UniProtKB/TrEMBL annotation:
Record bears the keyword Nucleotide-binding: yes
InterPro entries: AAA_14 (IPR041682), DUF4143 (IPR025420), P-loop_NTPase (IPR027417)
Keyword Nucleotide-binding: yes
Protein name as catalogued: ATP-binding protein
Domain AAA: 18-135
Residues annotated as domain DUF4143: 174-328
GO MF annotations in UniProt: ATP binding
Biological source species: Desulfotignum balticum
Keyword tags: ATP-binding, Nucleotide-binding
Length: 380
């Protein structure tokens, strides 16, 4: 088992200052394992709402919860939405003796309940699978191939990782998607998800996807919003600059987990990954996810013009502008597009995150940085 010490530290601090802490993330990313560790340290009361026995204990939830003291952990809280109103009443008591840790598989419904019903009373922590800081730089390519879900990354045999990912995809399509209100068959949704995998790293063309699936642009966007809300997909929004050039205005689509992406693209091992035409896009999406998780960035964008200039990530820090370009190459070239981005966006610096091993300053405003050394980026 790989300890999740950064999440554990964040959780412990949040539990000291907030009456309710909500730990949200995709299914099977390690939330319950982490909560069980916290339970042992605090001798907490634990409810698993997927357990019939625990649901029976909460048949009258207010009566069951109002007598408890100390830490109370409720897992799969999205399975009992009426709890949020009750928790609001309980934590508003002047002598409230309990602190609540809520675990939930992220979805638009649970986010709405947390942000509206428990507004001002809860601290929200988002959890994902492993990142390279947790597993070490020696395992970076294994993390890229298998993804960060513990039960995909940890098995000794690659075939066990592949089997787990197939089960995860099937469960998500057949059970989770219908629960989120998407009225579409699992077969059609898998087709949509596979089509989306082939669009990974590209700007969204909702019309094209809609025609292929026989639905409207609006429906495609609603599906995407739900996949984004469940941490399956990331939509990086475009940045528009007043520079007199036509600029792309649709979001860029990435799968959050590279292992799930590879499964949908039938990429089974490093050999098939290295020969796949989606190799560059896969590396780009993997790098984007690691960068967003490791660097403390508030908002990130991408920038692209119809004349061909583009920048993978654009962000502000201390009112200054910075950019990141991502290349799967050990000797990436400094391109005309990079110089245009520096000039048109008035960048303070541009980092090229690449697949090599050394930090290399190549020009006054351009530095090559290996993916496993992105925490050294000086702006943040």
């Amino acid at each position: 088992m790989i300890p999740r010490k950064s999440y554990e530290s964040v959780l412990e601090k949040a539990l000291k200052r907030s009456p309710v802490v909500s730990l949200l993330g995709p299914r099977q990313c390690g939330k319950t394992t982490l909560a069980r560790m916290i339970e042992k340290k605090h001798e907490a009361v634990f409810f698993d709402l997927e357990s019939p026995r625990d649901r029976l204990r909460l048949q009258n939830p207010q009566m069951a919860l109002e007598i408890l003291k100390g830490l109370v952990i409720i897992d799969e809280v999205q399975g009992m939405p009426e709890l949020f109103e009750i928790l609001r009443v309980l934590v508003d008591r002047s002598d409230n003796p309990a602190t609540f840790l809520l675990l939930g598989s992220a979805s638009p419904h649970i986010l709405k309940n947390v942000s509206e019903t428990l507004a001002g009373r809860t601290e929200l922590i988002e959890m994902s699978g492993f990142d390279f800081m947790e597993i070490g730089e020696d395992n970076l390519h294994e993390l890229w191939l298998r993804g960060g879900f513990p039960r995909s990354f940890l098995p000794r045999l690659l075939e066990d990782s592949i089997a787990w990912r197939e089960g995860f995809v099937r469960t998500f399509l057949e059970r989770d998607i219908p629960q989120l209100g998407i009225n579409i068959s699992a077969i059609a949704m898998r087709r949509f998800w596979t089509m989306l995998a082939h669009c990974h790293g590209q700007t969204l063309n909702a019309s094209q996807l809609g025609r292929s699936l026989g639905v409207t642009d609006k429906t495609i966007r609603s599906y995407l919003d739900i996949l984004t809300g469940t941490y399956m997909v990331c939509q990086v929004q475009p940045w528009h600059e007043n520079i007199g050039k036509r600029q792309v205005k649709a979001p860029k689509i990435y799968f959050r987990d590279s292992g799930i992406l590879h499964h949908l693209l039938a990429i089974t091992d490093m050999e098939s990954l290295m020969t796949n035409p989606r190799l560059g896009a896969s590396w780009e999406g993997f790098a984007v996810e690691q960068i967003i998780r490791v660097l403390p960035l508030q908002d990130v964008y991408f920038w692209s013009t119809y004349s061909g200039a583009e920048l993978d990530l654009f962000f502000f820090h201390d009112s200054k502008r910075y950019g990141i370009e991502i290349k799967f190459s050990e000797t990436p070239k400094i391109t005309k597009s990079m110089h245009i981005a520096i000039q048109d966006l008035d960048l303070e610096h541009l980092w090229v995150v690449y697949s090599g091993n050394h930090i290399v300053p190549v020009e006054k405003k351009i530095t090559l940085v290996p993916l496993d050394k992105i925490e050294t980026i000086q702006a943040v």
